[in-house]
Amino acid sequence: MSESVLRIVWIYPDLLSTYGDRGNLLILARRAAIRGIPVETYQVRSDQAMPSTADIYLIGGGEDGPQALASQRLISDGGLHRAVNQGAAVLAICAGYQLFGHSFFAKGEKCPGLGLLDLHSDRGETRAVGELRGDIDPRLGLPPLSGFENHGGRTHLGPGVAPLARVTAGIGNDGQTEGAWHGKILGTYSHGPALARNPAIADLLLRWAIGADSLAPVDDTWPDKLRAERLAAAGA
């Protein structure tokens, strides 16, 4: 954690912010503050330099054009690459998840990604829309993934990453796996917002950022009610 303050960056909200993905920023900041962890949040627009010294970076979903522009600007800027190389934690959602790979398709054209995750994305024959559920990689020690997906992509994982989850409802990457992770980077197609439905993922990011094995418990009565409702809707 930088000095004594947890610094959280929301990447390019002017380009990538759909389905309430801003909620991930609010939830992380709230769950840190409840535990007495000082927090500073930054919303970095696409015409601003990307800071490289924050602790957690969040990137959301978006349409093809903004996705391609975001990738171009992040590659040119280089700040996010420096942050990851310095050990920052990342949560990448949907279009943001795709652009973390080697390549993705936008408006029918293959676009270069950031190359921060060993994967590539192309277009599926059908659009994936609806509830998404999966069993998260047991090495992460988290309960099942819950989310809402709405995307036309299919993501293919290379040997340098592991699936975030094995799909039990929905499509995710390809109907078998969902998302990916490597080091302190998590990628997923889960909206909802993702951290509203999966507070344990929020706490994992916080633990990574502050270097803690555990966090003080918080009252998750309402998040648990939401999870139960949405997991039931997905057939859990």
TrEMBL record:
It catalyses: beta-D-GlcNAc-(1->4)-Mur2Ac(oyl-L-Ala-gamma-D-Glu-L-Lys-D-Ala-D-Ala)-di-trans,octa-cis-undecaprenyl diphosphate + L-glutamine + ATP + H2O = beta-D-GlcNAc-(1->4)-Mur2Ac(oyl-L-Ala-D-isoglutaminyl-L-Lys-D-Ala-D-Ala)-di-trans,octa-cis-undecaprenyl diphosphate + L-glutamate + ADP + phosphate + H(+); L-glutamine + H2O = L-glutamate + NH4(+). Pathway: Cell wall biogenesis; peptidoglycan biosynthesis. Signal peptide: none annotated. PROSITE patterns: GATASE_COBBQ (PS51274). The keyword Cell wall biogenesis/degradation applies. Its EC number is 6.3.5.13, 3.5.1.2. Keywords: Cell shape, Cell wall biogenesis/degradation, Glutamine amidotransferase, Hydrolase, Ligase, Peptidoglycan synthesis. The active site is at 94 (nucleophile), 191. It comes from the Bacteria. Gene3D superfamilies: 3.40.50.880. Substrate binds at residue 127. CDD domains: GATase1_CobQ. Residues 7-198 form the CobB/CobQ-like glutamine amidotransferase domain. InterPro entries: Class_I_gatase-like (IPR029062), CobQ_GATase1 (IPR033949), GATase_3 (IPR011698), Lipid_II_synth_GatD (IPR043702). The lipid II isoglutaminyl synthase complex catalyzes the formation of alpha-D-isoglutamine in the cell wall lipid II stem peptide. The GatD subunit catalyzes the hydrolysis of glutamine to glutamate and ammonia. The resulting ammonia molecule is channeled to the active site of MurT. Forms a heterodimer with MurT. Belongs to the CobB/CobQ family. GatD subfamily. PANTHER family: DETHIOBIOTIN SYNTHETASE, LIPID II ISOGLUTAMINYL SYNTHASE (GLUTAMINE-HYDROLYZING) SUBUNIT GATD. This is Lipid II isoglutaminyl synthase (glutamine-hydrolyzing) subunit GatD.
